[in-house]
TrEMBL record:
<keyword id="KW-1133">Transmembrane helix</keyword>
<feature type="transmembrane region" description="Helical">
    <location>
        <begin position="280"/>
        <end position="299"/>
    </location>
</feature>
<feature type="coiled-coil region">
    <location>
        <begin position="321"/>
        <end position="348"/>
    </location>
</feature>
<keyword id="KW-0472">Membrane</keyword>
<dbReference type="InterPro" id="IPR021836">
    <property type="entry name" value="DUF3429"/>
</dbReference>
<feature type="transmembrane region" description="Helical">
    <location>
        <begin position="229"/>
        <end position="247"/>
    </location>
</feature>
<keyword id="KW-0175">Coiled coil</keyword>
<feature type="transmembrane region" description="Helical">
    <location>
        <begin position="198"/>
        <end position="217"/>
    </location>
</feature>
<keyword id="KW-0812">Transmembrane</keyword>
<protein>
    <recommendedName>
        <fullName>Mitochondrial inner membrane protein 1</fullName>
    </recommendedName>
</protein>
<dbReference type="Pfam" id="PF11911">
    <property type="entry name" value="DUF3429"/>
</dbReference>
């Protein structure tokens, strides 16, 4: 039972190794102390029994004795500690400054100090430069950029005019007088602007779809066939029915159409169907048009309860149908009355003859 300890097992392994190589152990004497120290490290903590120590060779016993009795490296030198404790620290105010005994909070000791002049606006400046580079469109041909921006100006103008007319109507409702336009004039102008904006939006959406037909005919990015032709067909098929919708529904539908078409154009640019600058160019134009639609919806919503609803095309068609039926009914009634008179006249003539 006494020999079933970790120290005894380590000792037996070392003894077995020395027995296998007796010449090297007894003659060379050059066995590495580190090797024996590693094998006998547990002996310094768990002392073996005396009869086990007696079985060691002289070299093993010497190594073991040196391992047990050697001075540890972390032994405290009390004399040196007392000498340092009794030393008096001399003041040196000329070497002390506001930063001589501090270091950055997020840094490590002995690391160089952070730069003193840190630009706190660097992130914002970077974002502003990114926006400038995006809106500058340096890679876009100047003619396309200029004409494209000019093309969205009518859409933006109708949107701002809608907001102005709504303001005039609200101002007249609050004060009783209009600023420049009378309430009736502002309302009439508003009814003219709404179909103009919707019709112009349908034209723009159709034009954006037709661009893909031109790219297909030019063979840009290869000939894609029906996949690219479908873009030019679906765009006007979605755009033109909006002129038959109420104003709010038409504007929302066109907003969704512009957004979906921008996504399609972005994907087309990514796969090489359009020039590399086309998606950025479309982003600027779509942003302006989308903002115009939102502004128009806001202006229209401010006067929704104060402005009469302008009859849409469908309403006009229904009214025309109803009026036509009414007119036809009146004509038939007149024909019947005329026929009745003629019959009565014939009866009178026949009775007179008799």
């Amino acid at each position: 039972m006494m020999l079933r300890t970790g120290a005894s097992r380590a000792m037996f392994r070392s003894l077995k190794a020395s027995t296998v190589h007796p010449v090297r152990t007894s003659l060379s004497g050059s066995t590495s102390p580190v090797q024996w120290t590693s094998k006998l490290c547990s002996l310094s903590k768990k002392r073996p029994q005396p009869h086990i120590i007696n079985q060691l060779t002289p070299i093993q016993a010497a190594v073991f004795q040196r391992t047990v009795t050697s001075t540890p490296w972390d032994k405290i030198d009390k004399k040196h500690e007392e000498k340092i404790a009794n030393q008096k620290i001399e003041p040196t105010p000329e070497t002390v400054s506001a930063t001589s005994s501090i270091h950055p909070v997020l840094g490590e000791v002995a690391t160089p100090e952070a730069e003193k002049d840190v630009d706190m606006m660097a992130g914002i400046k970077h974002d502003i430069n990114t926006i400038k580079e995006t809106f500058s469109l340096a890679d876009v041909p100047r003619q396309a950029y200029t004409i494209g921006l000019a093309g969205v100006l009518p859409y933006l103008a109708t949107s701002l005019s809608t907001v102005y007319c709504a303001w005039e109507i609200n101002h007249a409702t609050a004060t009783g007088l209009g600023s420049i336009l009378s309430p009736k004039t502002a309302e009439a102008l508003l009814h003219v602007l709404e179909p103009l904006q919707i019709g112009y939006g349908a034209v723009i959406i159709s034009f954006l779809g037709a661009i893909h037909w031109g790219l297909e005919w030019a063979g840009y990015g290869g000939y894609q066939g029906y996949k690219r032709y479908a873009i030019g067909v679906v765009a006007p098929a979605v755009a033109w029915p909006t002129i038959l919708m109420p104003v709010e529904h038409a504007l929302v539908t066109q907003f969704l159409a512009f957004t979906a078409l921008y996504y399609v154009d972005t994907r087309a640019t990514y796969i090489g169907w359009t020039p590399p600058w086309y998606n950025t160019y479309r982003f600027i134009l779509t942003f302006i048009v989308g903002a115009s639609i939102v502004v128009s919806l806001i202006g229209r919503g401010e006067v929704a309860n104060r402005v009469g609803k302008v009859p849409s095309t469908v309403d006009r068609l229904v009214a025309f149908k109803d009026s036509a039926q009414e007119t036809l009914a009146q004509e038939e009634e007149a024909i019947r009355a005329q026929k009745v008179k003629e019959d009565e006249g014939e009866e009178e003539n026949s009775s007179d003859k008799e």
